[in-house]
Amino acid sequence: MKRMVSGIKPTGELTLGNYIGALRNFVKYQDDYELYVFIANLHCVTVYQEPKELRKNLKDAIGLYLACGLDPQKCTIFLQSDVYEHAQLGWLMTCMSYMGELNRMTQFKEKTQNAKDENITAGLFVYPPLMAADILLYDADYVPVGEDQKQHVELTRDLAQRFNNRYSETFVVPEPLVAKVGARIMSLSDPSKKMSKSEESNKGCIYLLEDINSAKKKIMGAVTDMCAHVNYDKINQPGVSNLLEIMSSLSGEPIDSIVTRYEGKGYGEFKKEVAEVVAKELTMIQNRYNEIMSSGQIEQILKEGAERAHRIAFRKLKKVQKKMGIDIF
I need a surface site. Which of 5, 14, 114, 119 has the fewest CB within 10 A? Predict the structure, then answer.
């Protein structure tokens, strides 16, 4: 069975974009792949996080992973920091990386565009090699990512090939796996930007634990255009196209079919159906989440997941260190 690895960095509440772009796909993949899913808490601290809030977000993320359908009997779920090999291989991959490669990382440029130098941490600059280590530790064949993360997988591939060429065959070179629909859900208030938990305005982002009526209101207030017809055109109608992707992803109905059904109809009726589809999904997730959080099972799931992940990560790290000359026996 092919192996797959991925994780989410919960620096804030998980969003509908996280769910459609990543979590739902994990649930599908766990039946067909040997799946390792981790909460990337080491990546969270590249910028300051208030400890109490971060702790809550981490616990919520685990509860939501499970509420969205991940089954600890089918996949391995763990906290990144519980498997120490992530950080150690992350340093070794940092030493394999070139400054020019890290300077070209698009996400670093975006996140530091308006920041002062004294506020930019070294961790924010070098976290891509840690992300590479997250993947390479487990000899992952595939990495499910959004469009905006493909560059990180390309760096991971480069580092794997560089190490293999320098020290002999050691790492599997992974392939990015991007969902065709819903891979990048955009902001409801500004469809030129990704739906993000770091949005200054709260109007464009729907959270998985958000009040249902609030979520519906955001859908009804989503930015559209003056074309006045439902059509999938990401250039000329990005807002409507984003709503179509949300609806198609959650309902399973093809975009073409939705467009045909709404021929000659206005945006109001269309938005109302999208809002109902989103509300139904959120209600299901929140009910499961509340059951999981009150069951007390999370700690045991993480403990067992970390133990399984550690067995693989330990062997890989020892092999890497031996080839590099770090291990002397």
Answer: 114
